[in-house]
Design brief:
This protein has 14 helices and no strands. The protein is mainly alpha-helical. α2 runs antiparallel to α3. The longest helix is centred in the middle third of the chain and has 32 residues, at about 145-175. The model is unreliable at about 75-80 (pLDDT under 50).
Protein backbone atom coordinates (compact mmCIF):
# COMPACT_ATOMS: atom_id res chain seq x y z
CA UNK A 1 0.00 0.00 0.00
CA UNK A 2 2.68 2.63 0.76
CA UNK A 3 4.11 1.98 -2.72
CA UNK A 4 0.81 2.73 -4.46
CA UNK A 5 1.19 4.93 -7.53
CA UNK A 6 -2.35 6.32 -7.38
CA UNK A 7 -5.25 6.82 -4.99
CA UNK A 8 -7.34 4.15 -6.70
CA UNK A 9 -4.50 1.64 -6.38
CA UNK A 10 -4.29 2.35 -2.65
CA UNK A 11 -8.08 2.04 -2.32
CA UNK A 12 -8.09 -1.28 -4.18
CA UNK A 13 -5.34 -2.64 -1.97
CA UNK A 14 -7.24 -1.47 1.10
CA UNK A 15 -10.34 -3.37 -0.05
CA UNK A 16 -8.20 -6.44 -0.69
CA UNK A 17 -6.62 -6.15 2.76
CA UNK A 18 -9.99 -5.66 4.45
CA UNK A 19 -11.45 -8.67 2.66
CA UNK A 20 -8.51 -10.91 3.50
CA UNK A 21 -8.57 -9.90 7.17
CA UNK A 22 -12.29 -10.62 7.39
CA UNK A 23 -11.91 -14.00 5.68
CA UNK A 24 -9.09 -15.04 8.00
CA UNK A 25 -10.73 -13.63 11.14
CA UNK A 26 -13.91 -15.70 11.21
CA UNK A 27 -12.23 -19.15 11.13
CA UNK A 28 -10.08 -18.01 14.06
CA UNK A 29 -13.22 -17.14 15.99
CA UNK A 30 -14.63 -20.53 15.07
CA UNK A 31 -11.42 -22.05 16.46
CA UNK A 32 -12.26 -20.62 19.87
CA UNK A 33 -15.75 -22.11 19.77
CA UNK A 34 -14.50 -25.46 18.43
CA UNK A 35 -11.54 -26.00 20.71
CA UNK A 36 -12.82 -24.67 24.04
CA UNK A 37 -15.56 -26.23 26.17
CA UNK A 38 -18.67 -24.06 26.61
CA UNK A 39 -17.71 -22.90 30.11
CA UNK A 40 -14.41 -21.46 28.83
CA UNK A 41 -15.63 -19.71 25.68
CA UNK A 42 -16.34 -16.36 27.30
CA UNK A 43 -12.81 -16.29 28.71
CA UNK A 44 -11.41 -17.37 25.35
CA UNK A 45 -13.16 -14.62 23.42
CA UNK A 46 -12.23 -12.07 26.10
CA UNK A 47 -8.57 -13.08 25.68
CA UNK A 48 -8.98 -12.66 21.93
CA UNK A 49 -10.30 -9.14 22.57
CA UNK A 50 -7.27 -8.40 24.74
CA UNK A 51 -4.84 -9.45 22.02
CA UNK A 52 -6.73 -7.51 19.31
CA UNK A 53 -6.59 -4.38 21.46
CA UNK A 54 -2.91 -4.82 22.20
CA UNK A 55 -2.17 -5.30 18.50
CA UNK A 56 -4.15 -2.17 17.58
CA UNK A 57 -2.21 -0.05 20.09
CA UNK A 58 1.16 -1.40 18.99
CA UNK A 59 0.43 -0.97 15.28
CA UNK A 60 -0.83 2.61 15.68
CA UNK A 61 2.29 3.51 17.67
CA UNK A 62 4.73 1.71 15.38
CA UNK A 63 5.82 4.71 13.23
CA UNK A 64 6.43 6.77 16.38
CA UNK A 65 8.34 3.89 18.00
CA UNK A 66 10.52 3.39 14.94
CA UNK A 67 11.45 7.08 14.90
CA UNK A 68 11.77 7.84 18.61
CA UNK A 69 12.79 4.55 20.19
CA UNK A 70 14.76 2.88 17.42
CA UNK A 71 16.14 6.13 16.03
CA UNK A 72 15.05 5.77 12.40
CA UNK A 73 15.01 8.98 10.40
CA UNK A 74 11.67 10.62 9.62
CA UNK A 75 12.79 11.37 6.07
CA UNK A 76 10.57 10.34 3.20
CA UNK A 77 11.38 7.03 1.60
CA UNK A 78 12.17 8.52 -1.82
CA UNK A 79 12.15 11.72 -3.82
CA UNK A 80 8.85 10.73 -5.45
CA UNK A 81 7.06 9.81 -2.23
CA UNK A 82 5.98 12.04 0.63
CA UNK A 83 5.29 9.06 2.88
CA UNK A 84 7.85 8.80 5.71
CA UNK A 85 10.18 5.81 5.69
CA UNK A 86 8.88 4.83 9.13
CA UNK A 87 5.38 4.41 7.67
CA UNK A 88 6.75 2.29 4.81
CA UNK A 89 8.57 0.08 7.30
CA UNK A 90 5.49 -0.18 9.50
CA UNK A 91 3.50 -1.61 6.58
CA UNK A 92 6.22 -4.15 5.86
CA UNK A 93 6.42 -5.20 9.52
CA UNK A 94 2.63 -5.48 9.64
CA UNK A 95 2.61 -7.72 6.56
CA UNK A 96 5.23 -10.05 8.05
CA UNK A 97 3.46 -10.21 11.42
CA UNK A 98 0.09 -10.90 9.78
CA UNK A 99 1.41 -13.73 7.62
CA UNK A 100 3.45 -15.21 10.46
CA UNK A 101 0.53 -15.17 12.90
CA UNK A 102 -1.87 -16.78 10.43
CA UNK A 103 0.60 -19.45 9.34
CA UNK A 104 1.62 -20.23 12.92
CA UNK A 105 -2.02 -20.74 13.93
CA UNK A 106 -2.85 -22.84 10.87
CA UNK A 107 0.22 -25.06 11.24
CA UNK A 108 0.14 -25.58 15.00
CA UNK A 109 -3.60 -25.77 15.82
CA UNK A 110 -5.13 -29.23 15.77
CA UNK A 111 -8.82 -29.53 15.00
CA UNK A 112 -11.00 -32.34 16.30
CA UNK A 113 -11.80 -34.71 13.43
CA UNK A 114 -15.44 -35.76 12.95
CA UNK A 115 -16.45 -39.00 14.60
CA UNK A 116 -17.48 -40.54 11.27
CA UNK A 117 -14.78 -39.38 8.87
CA UNK A 118 -16.11 -41.42 5.94
CA UNK A 119 -19.57 -39.83 6.24
CA UNK A 120 -17.96 -36.40 6.54
CA UNK A 121 -15.95 -36.91 3.33
CA UNK A 122 -19.04 -38.23 1.53
CA UNK A 123 -21.00 -35.14 2.54
CA UNK A 124 -18.18 -32.88 1.32
CA UNK A 125 -18.23 -34.56 -2.10
CA UNK A 126 -22.01 -34.37 -2.30
CA UNK A 127 -22.06 -30.63 -1.52
CA UNK A 128 -19.07 -29.60 -3.67
CA UNK A 129 -19.42 -26.95 -6.36
CA UNK A 130 -20.54 -23.33 -6.66
CA UNK A 131 -24.22 -24.22 -6.96
CA UNK A 132 -24.21 -26.19 -3.73
CA UNK A 133 -22.26 -23.39 -2.02
CA UNK A 134 -24.84 -20.76 -2.98
CA UNK A 135 -27.69 -23.06 -1.96
CA UNK A 136 -25.96 -23.79 1.33
CA UNK A 137 -25.53 -20.09 2.11
CA UNK A 138 -29.20 -19.30 1.51
CA UNK A 139 -30.41 -22.34 3.42
CA UNK A 140 -28.09 -21.38 6.26
CA UNK A 141 -29.48 -17.85 6.35
CA UNK A 142 -33.06 -19.14 6.42
CA UNK A 143 -32.26 -21.71 9.08
CA UNK A 144 -30.22 -19.49 11.42
CA UNK A 145 -30.67 -20.34 15.10
CA UNK A 146 -32.86 -17.91 17.05
CA UNK A 147 -29.90 -16.54 19.03
CA UNK A 148 -28.07 -15.75 15.80
CA UNK A 149 -31.11 -13.97 14.30
CA UNK A 150 -31.48 -11.80 17.40
CA UNK A 151 -27.73 -11.13 17.57
CA UNK A 152 -27.84 -10.11 13.90
CA UNK A 153 -30.01 -7.14 14.92
CA UNK A 154 -27.56 -6.28 17.69
CA UNK A 155 -24.64 -6.49 15.27
CA UNK A 156 -26.38 -4.35 12.67
CA UNK A 157 -26.89 -1.38 15.00
CA UNK A 158 -23.49 -1.92 16.63
CA UNK A 159 -21.50 -1.74 13.41
CA UNK A 160 -23.65 1.04 11.96
CA UNK A 161 -22.71 3.09 15.00
CA UNK A 162 -19.03 2.19 14.69
CA UNK A 163 -19.02 3.21 11.04
CA UNK A 164 -20.40 6.61 12.07
CA UNK A 165 -17.44 6.89 14.43
CA UNK A 166 -14.79 5.89 11.91
CA UNK A 167 -16.06 8.18 9.14
CA UNK A 168 -17.16 11.28 11.03
CA UNK A 169 -15.37 11.48 14.39
CA UNK A 170 -12.23 13.14 12.99
CA UNK A 171 -13.99 15.89 10.97
CA UNK A 172 -16.48 16.35 13.83
CA UNK A 173 -13.65 17.22 16.21
CA UNK A 174 -11.64 19.21 13.70
CA UNK A 175 -14.58 21.36 12.65
CA UNK A 176 -17.03 21.19 15.55
CA UNK A 177 -14.62 21.43 18.49
CA UNK A 178 -11.53 23.10 17.01
CA UNK A 179 -13.51 25.34 14.66
CA UNK A 180 -11.26 24.64 11.70
CA UNK A 181 -11.88 24.32 7.99
CA UNK A 182 -10.09 21.75 5.80
CA UNK A 183 -6.58 22.99 5.08
CA UNK A 184 -6.39 25.32 8.08
CA UNK A 185 -3.97 24.94 10.99
CA UNK A 186 -6.79 24.55 13.52
CA UNK A 187 -8.36 21.79 11.41
CA UNK A 188 -5.04 19.96 11.30
CA UNK A 189 -4.72 20.23 15.08
CA UNK A 190 -8.19 18.75 15.36
CA UNK A 191 -7.23 15.86 13.09
CA UNK A 192 -4.14 15.14 15.18
CA UNK A 193 -6.11 15.28 18.43
CA UNK A 194 -8.76 12.96 16.99
CA UNK A 195 -5.97 10.43 16.43
CA UNK A 196 -5.04 10.69 20.10
CA UNK A 197 -8.68 10.17 21.10
CA UNK A 198 -9.01 7.11 18.88
CA UNK A 199 -5.86 5.71 20.43
CA UNK A 200 -7.49 6.10 23.85
CA UNK A 201 -10.45 3.90 22.96
CA UNK A 202 -8.16 1.16 21.68
CA UNK A 203 -6.02 1.46 24.81
CA UNK A 204 -9.02 1.28 27.14
CA UNK A 205 -10.37 -1.68 25.18
CA UNK A 206 -7.09 -3.50 25.71
CA UNK A 207 -7.11 -2.74 29.44
CA UNK A 208 -10.80 -3.51 29.87
CA UNK A 209 -10.24 -6.92 28.31
CA UNK A 210 -8.48 -7.83 31.59
CA UNK A 211 -11.62 -6.74 33.43
CA UNK A 212 -13.73 -8.84 31.07
CA UNK A 213 -11.76 -11.90 32.11
CA UNK A 214 -12.96 -11.36 35.66
CA UNK A 215 -16.52 -10.36 34.74
CA UNK A 216 -17.05 -13.52 32.70
CA UNK A 217 -16.61 -15.53 35.89
CA UNK A 218 -19.55 -13.78 37.58
CA UNK A 219 -21.91 -12.50 34.87
CA UNK A 220 -23.42 -13.81 31.66
CA UNK A 221 -22.06 -12.71 28.29
CA UNK A 222 -25.50 -11.27 27.55
CA UNK A 223 -25.50 -9.00 30.62
CA UNK A 224 -21.90 -7.92 30.07
CA UNK A 225 -22.49 -7.03 26.44
CA UNK A 226 -25.68 -5.07 27.11
CA UNK A 227 -24.01 -2.94 29.80
CA UNK A 228 -20.84 -2.40 27.76
CA UNK A 229 -22.76 -1.32 24.65
CA UNK A 230 -24.80 1.11 26.72
CA UNK A 231 -21.65 2.66 28.20
CA UNK A 232 -20.02 2.86 24.77
CA UNK A 233 -23.09 4.35 23.10
CA UNK A 234 -23.57 7.05 25.73
CA UNK A 235 -19.86 7.81 25.53
CA UNK A 236 -19.93 8.26 21.75
CA UNK A 237 -23.09 10.39 21.85
CA UNK A 238 -21.54 12.62 24.53
CA UNK A 239 -18.81 13.84 22.14
CA UNK A 240 -21.17 16.55 20.88
CA UNK A 241 -21.56 18.13 24.34
CA UNK A 242 -17.94 18.77 25.26
CA UNK A 243 -16.60 22.33 25.09
CA UNK A 244 -12.90 21.52 25.43
CA UNK A 245 -10.50 19.08 23.81
CA UNK A 246 -10.10 16.86 26.87
CA UNK A 247 -13.74 15.84 27.16
CA UNK A 248 -13.68 13.55 24.10
CA UNK A 249 -10.94 11.54 25.81
CA UNK A 250 -13.51 10.50 28.41
CA UNK A 251 -16.02 9.75 25.66
CA UNK A 252 -13.51 7.51 23.90
CA UNK A 253 -12.63 5.79 27.17
CA UNK A 254 -16.31 4.86 27.55
CA UNK A 255 -16.39 3.68 23.95
CA UNK A 256 -13.35 1.51 24.66
CA UNK A 257 -15.43 -0.42 27.20
CA UNK A 258 -17.99 -1.13 24.49
CA UNK A 259 -15.33 -2.00 21.91
CA UNK A 260 -13.75 -4.64 24.16
CA UNK A 261 -17.11 -6.34 24.51
CA UNK A 262 -17.96 -6.00 20.80
CA UNK A 263 -14.86 -7.99 19.94
CA UNK A 264 -15.70 -10.86 22.26
CA UNK A 265 -19.12 -11.24 23.89
CA UNK A 266 -21.33 -11.62 20.75
CA UNK A 267 -19.14 -14.51 19.63
CA UNK A 268 -19.27 -16.12 23.07
CA UNK A 269 -23.09 -16.01 22.94
CA UNK A 270 -23.17 -17.23 19.36
CA UNK A 271 -20.75 -20.13 19.88
CA UNK A 272 -22.94 -21.55 22.65
CA UNK A 273 -26.00 -21.59 20.39
CA UNK A 274 -24.53 -23.09 17.19
CA UNK A 275 -24.41 -26.74 16.18
CA UNK A 276 -20.72 -27.75 16.41
CA UNK A 277 -20.70 -29.18 12.88
CA UNK A 278 -21.65 -25.78 11.42
CA UNK A 279 -19.64 -23.52 13.72
CA UNK A 280 -17.29 -22.27 11.00
CA UNK A 281 -20.09 -21.75 8.47
CA UNK A 282 -22.25 -19.69 10.81
CA UNK A 283 -19.30 -17.66 12.06
CA UNK A 284 -18.71 -16.68 8.43
CA UNK A 285 -22.38 -15.86 7.85
CA UNK A 286 -22.36 -13.80 11.06
CA UNK A 287 -19.80 -11.54 9.40
CA UNK A 288 -22.52 -10.47 6.93
CA UNK A 289 -24.08 -8.45 9.73
CA UNK A 290 -20.85 -6.50 10.13
CA UNK A 291 -20.49 -5.77 6.42
CA UNK A 292 -24.13 -4.96 5.55
CA UNK A 293 -24.52 -2.02 8.02
CA UNK A 294 -21.22 -0.59 6.80
CA UNK A 295 -22.44 -0.70 3.19
CA UNK A 296 -25.72 0.97 4.17
CA UNK A 297 -23.91 3.59 6.26
CA UNK A 298 -21.52 4.47 3.44
CA UNK A 299 -24.42 4.75 0.99
CA UNK A 300 -26.78 6.78 3.18
CA UNK A 301 -24.82 8.82 5.72
CA UNK A 302 -23.09 11.10 3.21
CA UNK A 303 -26.44 12.18 1.75
CA UNK A 304 -27.94 12.72 5.22
CA UNK A 305 -24.97 14.74 6.50
CA UNK A 306 -24.90 16.92 3.40
CA UNK A 307 -28.62 17.62 3.14
CA UNK A 308 -29.97 17.30 6.70
CA UNK A 309 -27.00 18.56 8.71
CA UNK A 310 -25.56 21.10 6.27
CA UNK A 311 -22.31 19.15 6.02
CA UNK A 312 -21.70 19.08 9.80
CA UNK A 313 -20.21 15.76 10.96
CA UNK A 314 -21.02 15.99 14.67
CA UNK A 315 -24.70 14.94 14.34
CA UNK A 316 -23.57 11.78 12.55
CA UNK A 317 -21.37 10.94 15.56
CA UNK A 318 -24.41 11.36 17.83
CA UNK A 319 -26.40 9.07 15.53
CA UNK A 320 -23.63 6.52 15.95
CA UNK A 321 -23.91 6.73 19.72
CA UNK A 322 -27.69 6.34 19.57
CA UNK A 323 -27.25 3.32 17.30
CA UNK A 324 -25.03 1.66 19.91
CA UNK A 325 -27.66 2.35 22.58
CA UNK A 326 -30.30 0.70 20.36
CA UNK A 327 -27.95 -2.28 20.00
CA UNK A 328 -27.68 -2.47 23.80
CA UNK A 329 -31.46 -2.54 24.13
CA UNK A 330 -31.70 -5.20 21.41
CA UNK A 331 -29.46 -7.52 23.45
CA UNK A 332 -32.43 -7.92 25.82
CA UNK A 333 -34.25 -9.86 23.07
CA UNK A 334 -31.48 -12.45 22.75
CA UNK A 335 -32.77 -15.64 24.45
CA UNK A 336 -30.93 -15.90 27.74
CA UNK A 337 -31.21 -19.65 28.18
CA UNK A 338 -29.71 -20.34 24.75
CA UNK A 339 -27.00 -17.65 24.69
CA UNK A 340 -25.45 -18.13 28.13
CA UNK A 341 -23.69 -21.15 29.53
CA UNK A 342 -22.89 -20.57 33.22
CA UNK A 343 -19.32 -21.20 34.32
CA UNK A 344 -18.87 -24.70 35.69
CA UNK A 345 -21.78 -26.24 33.78
Amino acid sequence: MPNSSSLWMAAGLLWLLDGSVNISMEPFRAFVGDLLPPQQRKVGFAMQSLLIGFGAILSSMLPWLLANVFGLALATSSAESRIPATVHLSFYIGAVVFMTAVLYTVLTTREHPPKDLAAFEAEKRATAGVGHAITGIFSGLVGMPLVMRRLAVVQFFTWFGLFCLWIYFTPALAHGLFGGEPGSESYQRGVEWAGVCLGVYNGVACGFAFVLLGLTQRFSARSIHRAALLVGGLGLASVAYWKNEYGPLLSMAALGVGWASILSMPYAMLANALPPARMGFYMGVFNFFIVIPQIIASAVLGFVVKNAFDGRAMPAVVIGGCSLVIAALAVTWVPKDQADTPIGV
